[in-house]
Amino acid sequence: MKNHFKPDFFAERVLDIDFERLAGMGVKAIVFDADNTLLSYDESTPAKEIKVLCDGLKKSGFYVCILSNGHSKRIKSIARDLELEFVGDALKPLKKGFRDCAKKSGIGPDRTVVVGDQIFTDIWGAGRAGCLSVLVRPIDLKNEPGFVKFKRLIEKNFIERIYSDSTKIGRRI
Which residue, among 1, 22, 121, has the nearest Cα to 64 in the 3D structure? Predict the structure, then answer.
C-alpha cells in the first residue's frame, strides 16, 4: 500500500523537473501548487521562466493546471498570467480540488502528477487522489503565513528524511 505522505519524486525546484521523463511514464496532466512552488508568497506575478515552462508544457501536449489553497482572486490572477486553468480555495489535502482538476483535464489521476512544496497538503492530497507527486523545495520560507510556518514545523521530520535520503522516494527527476 502506498504511503500517501511520501512523494513519488523529489526535485529542487519546478524548473529542475524532467517533464519529458514523466511523459515517458504516461503522465499527461501536470497540476502545480502556486505558493512557494511556482512563486513566493510575496510575489504576485510568476517569473518569466515559469511562464516559458508552462507554455512549453502545453505545447508538448500536457494539460497544465494550478491547484491551490490560496484565495481564488489571487490564484485567478496568477493563472491568467500563465494562461492556465485553476482551482483555488481547494482545501487540500481533501480530494475535491484534485478531482476538480481531473474533471477539467479529462485525464485520470493515474496519468496526473501533482507538484508542490508541502507534504501535508500537496503530497498527501495527491496520494489520496491517486496521483503521482513531486515534492519541490519551497521557494522562500521568510514570508510564509503563520499557519504555513506551523505546518512546516510539523513537516520538518518528514522533510529532513526525504531530502537526506532521496533514494527512499525513488528516482530523482
Answer: 22
What pLDDT, in 10s, does the model give residues 95-108?
999 989 988 999 99
Residue at grid coordinates 521562466: 49
> What string of DSSP letters covers 52-102?
HHHHHHHHTT-EEEEE-SS-HHHHHHHHHHHT-EEE-S--TTSHHHHHHHH
Q: Over the stretch 112-167, which tens digit does the pLDDT of each residue have?
A: 999 999 998 999 999 999 999 999 988 876 776 666 666 766 677 776 766 555 43
Secondary structure class of 18 (helix, strand, coil): coil
Q: Are 22 and 62 in contact (CB under 8 A)?
A: no
Please tell me the pTM assigned to this model: 0.87
| Terminal C-alpha separation, the chain | 23
What are the backbone dihedrals phi and psi of residue 157, each rounded to the nearest 5 degrees, phi first? -60, -45
Q: Are 33 and 115 in contact (CB under 8 A)?
A: yes
In one letter, which amino acid is 46?
Answer: P
* Short-list 83, 86, 89, CA closest to 55: 83
Determine the residue type at 33: D
Q: Going from the N-terminus, what domains does the chain have, and what CATH number goes with each?
A: 9-169 (3.40.50.1000)
